[in-house]
Each structure stands twice: as C-alpha cells, then as structure tokens.
C-alpha cells in the first residue's frame, strides 16, 4: 500500500483536525501518502483533493473546523458510487478513511459493499452513534455548553427570570443531559424520557416560587416534543424552546404565578470551537487507529473505536443506520433525575407543610399579634428561617400586620 485517502462529511465537530493529523503522522511513519478529499462526498464524486503534507497538518489539532471542509452532499445513486470508485482507481488510492456521523457511516458501508477498502472514524457532537461509548467533539460541545449555561443561570438568578434554552442533539438527548448536569440546570428535557409535561413544569415553577426561588433554567433537547410530533423549522429540528416558553407562561398564570420567561438557543457555535484537551488527544488516537486499520486487510469495513485503552473495530454493517439513545437505566440519567427532585424543592415544601401541621394554633396567633422579634423567636424554636415562616403565614392568607407595622404593640403570653 502506497496511497490512501480521507474525507470528512456531515456537520463539523471539534477534533476533526486532530484525527487528520494523527492519520497523516502514522501514514508518514509507514511511508504512505494521504490524499484529502475536499468538501465531503462532493470531493469524492468530483475528484477534488489535495495531498496532505507535514506542513499542512502542523499544529492543526488545536483548531476547530476541518482543513478539508465538510458537507452534507448526498450520494444520489449507483452512478455516484461508480464515480467515486473510478476516481479512487485513477489516483491509485488503495484505501479510504471516512470521518463522520451516522449518515456518513451509511455512505461508508455503501462504499464497502462496492468493494472499497474503507475504515470509518465516528464523529458527532450528538454522541448518538451506536457501538461507540463517546464520539470526539462531544466533550468540547459539553464544555462550551456548560460555560454558556452557567452564564444564563446567573442571569436568571440575578434577574428573577426563567430561561428555556434549546440545545442541539438531533434525535437523542446525550448533549442536553451532560451539559445540564455540568451546569446544574433546574430541569433537563430529553426525548428519551417521553413527551414534555407542561403542567408538571408549571408546578415546578410554583414550588420554587413558594420557597423564594423565582428563577430557573430549563434545558430542552431540540428533538424533545409534546406528544404531537417533532417541532421543525425550515425542514430541520428547532423551535421547541419558543413553543414551550409560550405554553409555560399560560400554565403558570393559571396557577396564579407571575412568571417572566425568556428563550435562548445553543446551536451552531458548539460545532467548531477550539477542541478540549480530551478531544485533541482522542482525535489523535483515532487517527492512529485508522492508519493502522488501513494497513490490515482484516480491518476493512470496520469503525475505529477505543475500548479499555485498546483499539477495537466495530463492523459497519452491524451499526449502520442505527442510533444510540440515552439509557434511562444508566447512571447519567439517574443523576439527572436526582437533580430534578432536588431542584423541585420537595423537601423544602414538605418542611413548610410540617410547620403548618404542628404549629397551626401558634401561627394563627402570630398572624394577629406577633412582633418581628416574636416572629424571629418562633422561627428559631421551629428550626426554620424567618423568611420561611413569613411565607407560611402569607400562604395562610393572614395579614401579618404587626410584622408590617413597626408601631404595633408588643404581644405577650405567646402560645409557644
């Protein structure tokens, strides 16, 4: 083997250039030349390529994007496949490396069936490729998302707002789940968990309002839905955050809550930022693995993965056309459910209910007679904050007039 090719297809993801560099480095170590086909499958069909040299790949691993470009150019039929095979033969390309997501994997499997010696490197920020624990680009997307969501969370807390933030992920919730965990979002909605329950979210807003938290951040995967089909815009997934914000305002108003809701979208800027250290090194490993697989005929038609610090090949035909959903039995989702229970303030509300049950007579007396000092003393004896006690009194529709009116006379003989 003297010459191999590589192409990138689908949406960009941080770490692509690291894979290309790892591939070229190991190919050079093995005296192989590498042709890089431009703009995805378009370059394969039309024979557009460059020879990748040491100078071209120097330090490209620190850059986002793809030095070869990428595209979603679709192969229309057997004629396009025949053109690709012909161009590879004309340039004496003896093997081909594809870098891409689930759609590119299907193209790679199609070329395998046409007799091309091909190896696939899985790539997507969505982390939804079957047979792979984690795709490169995912770590960077989570990192960037978490930073942005943390800033949004601080805005919500400072301004007394609720934010509904939409995030990429195609038909799975991997990116939403990990970014939501990393940033501590109030609630994370993913398609695997079923349809969005607006009434339950309104109850969440009401519960947090009762304990003085008039803010929150709801992160929603772009494919989350209301049981009425996916929401799309211009033929693509998108727009669920705006619909949810409108419905949430209506539902909270019905509960008597005045809720200010804003929307935001974490979209295309997650695909080409500077890669994290993990994605740089991971990309280099996958590039090395692809070069090694290229020189092993038994690896033809396999997808390169790393398992327990060893290269592992997954047959393309076993995973092509499949999608990896979030496991609802997994640790990640169980952690998310724990976060949701905590953020819903159930324990705080149960404490308030316990106060009502155990100290109803005292609270009625306080509502009519107490001074601020007495309120503070009762709160201390009950083991709760003064603010919490005042909220309980207000919830009981009392006037708390002595607390609001400093001129009220001190009360005596409080039934404590």
Please describe the topology of this protein:
Layout: E1 3-8, H1 16-29, E2 33-37, H2 41-46, E3 49-52, H3 54-57, H4 78-90, E4 96-100, H5 102-113, E5 118-122, H6 138-159, E6 162-167, H7 174-183, E7 187-189, H8 198-210, E8 216-221, E9 232-233, E10 236-237, H9 240-254, E11 261-266, H10 277-294, E12 302-307, E13 310-315, H11 316-319, H12 331-343, H13 346-358, H14 360-369, H15 372-382, H16 386-395, H17 401-404
Parallel strand pairs: 1-2, 1-4, 4-5, 5-12, 6-8, 6-11, 7-8
Antiparallel strand pairs: 2-3, 9-10, 12-13
Helix pairs in contact: 1-10, 6-7, 7-12, 8-9, 15-16
Structure description:
The chain is of the alpha/beta class and 416 residues long. The chain folds into three domains: 3-137 and 275-319, Rossmann fold; 140-271, 3-Layer(aba) Sandwich (Rossmann fold); 347-404. It has helices spanning 16-29, 41-46, 54-57, 78-90, 102-113, 138-159, 174-183, 198-210, 240-254, 277-294, 316-319, 331-343, 346-358, 360-369, 372-382, 386-395, 401-404; strands at residues 3-8, 33-37, 49-52, 96-100, 118-122, 162-167, 187-189, 216-221, 232-233, 236-237, 261-266, 302-307, 310-315. The strands form three sheets. The chain has a seven-stranded mixed β-sheet with strand order 3-2-1-4-5-12-13, with helices on both faces. A four-stranded parallel β-sheet has the order 7-8-6-11, with helices on both faces. Strands 9-10 form a two-stranded antiparallel sheet. Helix 1 crosses helix 10 (277-294). It is elongated and about 95 Å long. Residues 399-416 have low confidence and may be disordered.
């Amino acid at each position: 083997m003297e010459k191999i090719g590589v192409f990138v297809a689908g949406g960009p993801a941080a770490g692509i250039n690291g894979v290309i560099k790892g591939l070229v480095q190991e190919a050079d170590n093995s005296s192989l030349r590498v042709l890089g086909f431009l703009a995805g499958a378009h370059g394969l069909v039309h024979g557009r390529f460059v020879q990748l040299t040491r100078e071209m790949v120097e330090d490209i691993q620190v850059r986002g994007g793809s030095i070869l470009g990428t595209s979603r150019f679709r192969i229309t039929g057997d004629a396009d496949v025949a053109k690709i095979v012909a161009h590879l033969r004309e340039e004496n390309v003896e093997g081909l490396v594809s870098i891409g997501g689930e759609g590119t994997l299907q193209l790679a499997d199609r070329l395998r069936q046409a007799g091309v010696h091909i190896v696939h490197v899985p790539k997507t920020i969505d982390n939804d490729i079957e047979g792979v624990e984690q795709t490169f680009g995912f770590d960077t997307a989570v990192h960037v998302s978490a930073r942005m969501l943390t800033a949004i969370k601080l805005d919500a807390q400072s301004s007394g707002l609720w934010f509904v933030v939409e995030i990429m992920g195609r038909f799975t919730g991997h990116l939403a789940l990990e970014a939501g965990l990393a940033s501590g979002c109030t609630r994370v909605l993913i398609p695997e968990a079923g349809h969005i329950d607006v009434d339950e979210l309104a109850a969440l807003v009401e519960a947090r309002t009762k304990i003085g938290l008039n803010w929150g951040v709801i992160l929603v995967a772009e494919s989350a839905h209301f049981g009425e089909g996916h929401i799309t815009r211009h033929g693509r997934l998108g727009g669920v955050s705006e619909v949810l914000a409108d419905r949430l305002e209506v539902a909270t108003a019905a509960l008597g809550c005045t809720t200010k809701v804003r929307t935001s979208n974490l979209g295309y800027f997650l695909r080409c930022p500077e890669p994290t250290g993990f994605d740089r090194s991971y990309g280099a490993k996958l590039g090395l693995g692809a070069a090694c697989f290229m020189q092993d005929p038994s690896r033809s038609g396999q997808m390169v993965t790393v398992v327990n610090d060893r290269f592992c090949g997954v047959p393309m035909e076993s995973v092509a056309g499949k999608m990896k959903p979030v496991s609802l039995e997994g640790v990640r989702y169980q952690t998310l459910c724990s976060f949701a229970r905590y953020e819903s303030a159930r324990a705080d509300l149960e404490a308030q209910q316990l106060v009502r049950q155990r100290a109803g007579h005292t609270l009625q007396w306080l509502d009519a007679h107490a001074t601020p000092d007495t309120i503070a003393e009762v709160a201390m004896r009950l083991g709760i904050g003064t603010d919490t006690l005042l909220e309980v009194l207000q919830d009981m529709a009392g006037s708390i007039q002595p607390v609001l009116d400093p001129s009220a006379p001190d009360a005596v003989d409080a039934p404590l």
